Each structure stands twice: as structure tokens, then as C-alpha cells.
Amino acid sequence: MPLLGWSLGGFLAREIARGHPSWSITSSRWGTPLHGPPETVSYRIYPPETVDHIKSTIQERDRQVIDVPVTAFYNRSDCIVPWQNCVDELSPRVENIEVSSTHIGMTLDPDIWSTLAHRLAGPDPRSHH
Hints:
It is a single chain. This protein has three helices and four strands; from the N terminus they run βαβαββα. The protein has a single domain (2-121), classed as Rossmann fold, CATH 3.40.50. The longest helix is centred in the middle third of the chain and has 14 residues, at 48-61. By secondary structure, it is an alpha/beta fold.
């Protein structure tokens, strides 16, 4: 099954793909902070010890490679999640794609949905492993 997620939902999809690669054929996310809430404008609502705990947990999880194809959409003018925090340089099977829509607009961006439709209609990505 494809795992799709936007913003922190994409973070959850990423971690599910990491922990349970047999559950997914691909993972796609848009406007997703790779290291969770501390990389968003909302980090200020979390107590510092919670942010520290999240960061250390993510660093530990990043040691396990995500072994499914990943499509990561980002926007350089995103005001919610800085684009640098969306670009995945850790996953070996990732394609980072810049889009022009806003953070909220990514959920309705026809370019994103067209790309996803083509990816999902193509051959099973597990056969290219």
C-alpha cells in the first residue's frame, strides 16, 4: 500500500515506512519535516525537554534506512516547515521534488497529485530493488 502524508502526517508515514517496510510499496510526503515538530514553526509550543527527547529519538531512528521508494515534495517559500527540513538526503531511494504551492495548498496541488498518480499507476517499485 502507498503511504501518503502531508506535513506531520508525512512524518508519520515516513516512520511507518521505516519501521514496517513490508507494509508499503512507496512513501510520498509533502511539506514534511524530516525530524518532526522541532523543525516546524510550532516547535515553540513544546517544552524544551520534549524537543530534546524528540530530537534524540529521531537521531536514533535515522540509523535505520528507509528501504522503500520515497517522493518528498517541498516548497522553498513554505512558511510552516522550512524547505531545508523537507529535503530528504538520508533515504537512498528518495526523489525530492520542488513545487510552487503553499504549505496548505500542497494538499490540493494538481502537480503533486498527477505525479503521485503516475507513480502509483507504474510498475510495483519493489520490483526495482
